[in-house]
Amino acid sequence: MEKENKMEKIVSLCKRRGFVFQGSEIYGGLAGIFDYGPYGVELRHNIKQYFWQKFISEREDVYGMGAAILMPEKVWEASGHTQLFTDPLVECKICHERVRADQAEVISDHEKTHKNEKEKVGWTEPSTFNLLVGSKLGASEKTATQVYLRGEITQGVHVNFKNILDSMHPKLPFGLGQIGKAFRNEITPRDFLFRQREFEQMELQYYIKPNDEEGDKQYEYWKQFAFDWYLGLGFKKENLRWRQHAKDELAHYAKDAWDIEYNTPFAGWKEAWGVHHRKDWDLRRHSEYSKTDLSYYDEETKERFIPWDIECSGGVDRAFLFVLLEAYTEDELGGETRTYLKLSPKLAPVKVAVFPLLKNKPQLVEKAREIYKTLKKEFGAVEFDDNGNIGKRYRRQDEIGTPFCVTIDFDTLEKNEGVTVRDRDTGKQERISENNLVSYIKEKMV
Ligand code: GAP
Hints:
Layout: H1 3-16, E1 20-22, E2 34-36, H2 38-57, E3 62-65, E4 70-72, H3 73-79, H4 81-84, E5 86-91, E6 98-100, H5 104-112, E7 127-130, E8 133-137, E9 145-149, H6 154-158, H7 161-168, E10 174-183, E11 198-208, H8 212-231, E12 240-244, E13 256-264, E14 268-279, H9 281-290, E15 296-298, E16 303-305, E17 308-315, H10 316-327, E18 328-333, E19 336-341, E20 352-356, H11 362-379, E21 382-384, H12 390-400, E22 404-408, H13 410-414, E23 419-423, E24 429-432, H14 437-444
Parallel strand pairs: 3-10, 20-21, 20-22
Antiparallel strand pairs: 1-2, 4-9, 5-6, 5-7, 8-9, 10-11, 11-17, 12-13, 13-14, 14-17, 15-16, 18-19, 22-23, 23-24
Helix pairs in contact: 2-10, 3-9
Bound molecules: glycyl-adenosine-5'-phosphate.
């Protein structure tokens, strides 16, 4: 399969099978904005659930958070975003389209659109463009307050640091994890879900004692933790790698930054996830700007200080896209070419599909419905399908990555021989007794 082609196939599958649609499509769409359909929300939910489980629920030292999207201007002045959250922008002197100056592929794609012009494309000098998306709150123009839709979900955590200390009384080191929408006025949104203007982030801010030894230890720990978590989404190890940010590329808040990159078929290695050493940047700045003491008192050493922050930050939508690119497979099965998503069962939007062998045999349908209800209670995302022949039903489920298809046939009814369970990846079927069906599937649902 050609590499470029794979991305096109994913975009088409996402639309055709109800995973992702262009935002407000019937009105012509909105660049960099996407809506998720029934299978898409399930897959997203499962990615987020896996984050929540590993980064928050299973740990004693991390609490969950749910901060608001709208925050006052002062927050973003303190965090440095109103001044420094910018990308370099250039304007084409022929058509006046504005694009990001630091993305060679964007520049070259734009130049191709003018290849028949007499003049060579002339670009303006780069200027800086702020990515924050603003709005006004309040009923009167005069008194309305300038607010921003958060450009990163991080600041909602930092501004609640004191609330968490006062309500939960945690001891360092401890973390605050969160999942939520972020908004950026990206100059050139592109590559489907890769660079959007509205997207979701999953993050951990892990507060530690402010010294280099502890900083280095925790930084290494969270890099490894994040990498293992990302691998757990179902990636081949050779398709992920680390890349350290060069000094001139570091975000204004970061002392050091490493990205987990994925080897994409559309543009080679691309950022999937960031681990950032933010030191005391955020808490110190919010202390100054809000005039609120955000220090921590260490009962053991009787010292008061501003903790450092090690951050793990990943995009839900980007993980969604990379998971689909990794899972998309074409092979030959039973002499036919088929497409299937080799999704980890814990991420699959539908866990099990249940089929009566024939639609027009009431006893088969009745039995299949009974089994469907039992499985649905247990696994939630279970589908019943009696449309078309069994082969077609398998193909439909393969295409959305359903790991198990259960068929009820005459041997189920007449010989009490249980049901067949078909494995998505091998196409092989096993007979499983009705009593063992739930535990059989549970065991494989990792
Ligand atoms: N709080 C740190 C932070 O926001 P970032 O590297 O700007 O760091 C973190 O973003 C992650 O959010 C990225 O690794 C990526 O997965 C995701 N992300 C960032 N911008 C995005 C965009 N425009 N569209 C989709 N995902 C994006």
